[in-house]
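[job 0412] stage=fold_complex status=start
inputs:
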Amino acid sequence: MAIVECFERIPCDPCAAACKQGAIRPFADICDLPRIDHELCNGCALCVVRCPGLAIFVVDASAGDGSAVVKMPYEHTPLPRAGQTVRATDRSGRDVCAGTVTRAQRPSAFDHTALVSIRVPVEHAMDVRGLLLPPGAGLGAGAKEGAQEGAEGGAGAGGKADARAGLGAGVGPVVVCRCEEITEDDIVAAYEAGYRTPEEIKRKLRCGMGPCQGRTCMPVVLSILSRLSGRPVGDMAPPTGRPPLKPTPLASFAALKYGPARPSSVEEDGR
Amino acid sequence: MRITEHPILDFGNPRMVQFTFEGRCLEGVEGEPIAAALHAAGIRLLRHSPGGRPRGLFCAIGNCSSCYMVVDGVPNVRTCVEPLRQGMVVCRQHGHGDLP
Amino acid sequence: MKRSVEVAIVGGGVIGCSIAYHLANLGCRDVAVYERGYPSCGSTGRCGAGVRAQWGTEMNCRLAHESIKRFERLEEDLDYPDIEFKQGGYLILAFSPAQLRQFERNVALQNSLGIPSRVVGPDEARDIVPHLAAPDLVGATFCGTDGHCNPFKVTDAYARAARRLGVEINTYTSVTGFEQQGGRVVRLETTAGPVECGAVVNAAGPFSAQVAAMAGLELPVFSQRHQVVVTEPVAPKQRPMVISFAHGFYCQQTPHGSFILGLGDPAEPRGLDIGHSWQFLADLAEKVEHLLPSLGRLRAVRQWSGLYNVTPDAQPILGPAGQPANLWLAVGFSGHGFMLAPMVGLTIAQGILGMEAEIPIDRLVLARFARGELVPEPSVV
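[job 0412] stage=fold_complex status=done
writing structure:
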């Protein structure tokens, strides 16, 4: 039978349209969570391959031999082969048990989502929601080769940092604003010198004044200020975002020329 | 390394073009981001920041400044979104670019 | 927060902080500043930050020239690391013979006061700024000691120095009213409670009229938006600030490498709007194409705006208000307050303390409007 693991009310309903048995009722409100009528569901798994969130599975325990088949959507390469032994994993990707692929199909009607069926012990049927191919069988091997052959200069430091003590604990200066090369130490020093708000940190250090206009650094700056001040991030206003959305050559604005009407954003009161 | 088989995307028959990087002749798919062509050729270091730090791809969606390179003499080109064309001259940018 | 001060300064921009510092430096430390945001969050922090001595009236020339000398040693005087003062000069463009003649008169006045400006022809202008196009240029003036700074850092320098001398700088604190007795302001109402005061300074920038109204005083000023854009940084390319009064255009490259460009709009309505428009960007693109076309390839990363506080003769209102008797004014700078901040701070402080002003600013008093004695300044953006 089909098991729906869709938990958020979002505007999405392709599963209802996919089911040919009418087992998923049409939604009254597009944000409703889907409900399966298990009397009508025949486990065909069309909904499984239609769900954009890969949140529907079919569990078939009808064999009665202590095993169950879990049918899951699969969007990796290469496709598993029938008979292959795989590791069955849970919703967090943790290893649960061994599984055997009974079927793996990706017809064009499934629109690039494959349906893979694996047999696992029945006691794991409600935990198993994914699979891992054996090492060397898939793209993982190819990725390793690439990393060895090509990394010409500058692989990231990637040291593990103790988040409680500070981003850079044990790793050296941590760059927070990459555009302007401002480190965590710079921000802490500025805070201790009395620059307490995101605006003042920006004005004093230039965090958020580079081409990315704070997209990369501001959330980190806010979290550092929160850690230093004890104030929740939600209490601190980041600097105002302003146009243009992306760095744009000055000359290209000539195309905005238009006549007497002067539309403009209005931020009143001089703030 | 270049991905040729993908579960969702269909790459069709890509047209390969030639470009130069720091004087070396390289090949890439016409229209792919310049940084992707460099990445496929094993080149990950795209520039040095004004502070001398090595920089490569970061956001890879045209939002930051990590992948800036000098392309056909123009500095600050966001190579993660700029499409590759035949004959492009691509150089690492060191610090701030020179406006021509 | 103190419940009584000798001098209360309304407004913590560069003017308010400069006045506060100079008061304390001259020995009056019972001073408090009331700033509704953080210092320089208003017009100061949004300005083009140009600093020039090339003015057309003696008083402006002297105030600006002396201010520049103070900018030159501000880091040392205020013990502040870096105000990003780039003295690359100002190249002021002329596009008509009449304009050039006015500039020649201005230069003669400036030279007589020790300001090292000179008139240059179009060819020399293009030597000074090689990427200058402007085919209809008839001439220009250049003064190598002009330049630009970082407005936040200058304000911060004054505020921190003032604090060290005992001044109380109150941020995120708005003044909401004045209580008067016997023709004097005796108490401020603020969002942090009341404060008794000896004297009050209105340094409220674009809100000068609103603050004056709290004292029952009407000021002949209006506020008006001016828009600015900043680009990504590039290697150093332009030494001087380039400015054209004819086009209302200015353009400078900061020490960091970004270009800051501004453009006035003759049709800009009066008011407190600090939004932004596409029209500004389109007009700016046109001016850049005409004057400095190679900058057209520079990418803008941010546009913003700030407010001028404008008087009928485009000169500030400085000195005692007259009524209330203990209200002082340092407002109406009409777009050139930042560059005069050092000397305005000093002379207003001197006035409040009954000392002789280093440069007499009596002509800029509020009463000049009632007397019909405007002080027209020919050299404004």
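[job 0412] summary: Chain A touches chain C through 36 residues (CB under 8 Å).
[job 0412] exit 0
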